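The instructor's notes for this session suggest beginning with a concrete chain rather than abstract definitions. Hand out the sequence below and ask the class to guess, before any prediction is shown, which regions might be ordered.
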Amino acid sequence: MALLLWGLNLVQSGINHAFGTELRRLIGQGMRHPLLAWLTGLGVTGLLQSSTATALITVSFAREGLMQTAPALAVMLGADVGTSLVVQVFAFDLRWLSPLFILAGGIAYVSRRNSRQENVSKTLLGLGLMLLALHQVISFAEPLLASESFQAILAAIGDEPVPLLILGVLATW
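After discussion, reveal the predicted structure:
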């Protein structure tokens, strides 16, 4: 989990430092029409992989009076959809991309010429680490999921949400 969180941090900070000004400009320009605001929220969240980061940018714009309530809500709705899409992409078996992202990020980092290239390399490294970490989490969970006793517990619980939530917390711990 630490590797996953570190990778996510690298991606977020890399994108923010490399393209932060452009992302803020994109959000600012996307406020003219609700559909454009929604698409802006979706796109920025897809790049940052964090609806929280999009929310922080949106709140700062609203606080400074640069954005009205309706466009801000449209941006946040797009950010929520963007988060869902990112989760769906990571649900695919993309572990083969991990070494490619790590290699590309490492080469880009070594051959960097400016801060933008350094931040793009951090983003690539972060994506590779996230994919590697997701694969590790799945491989660690497979023995538990294959366990007959775990399957029996799942069958006994059925579709009851509270016991399933408790079981999920315990299995994660």
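Then share the key points. The mean pLDDT is 85. The longest helix spans residues 115-146.
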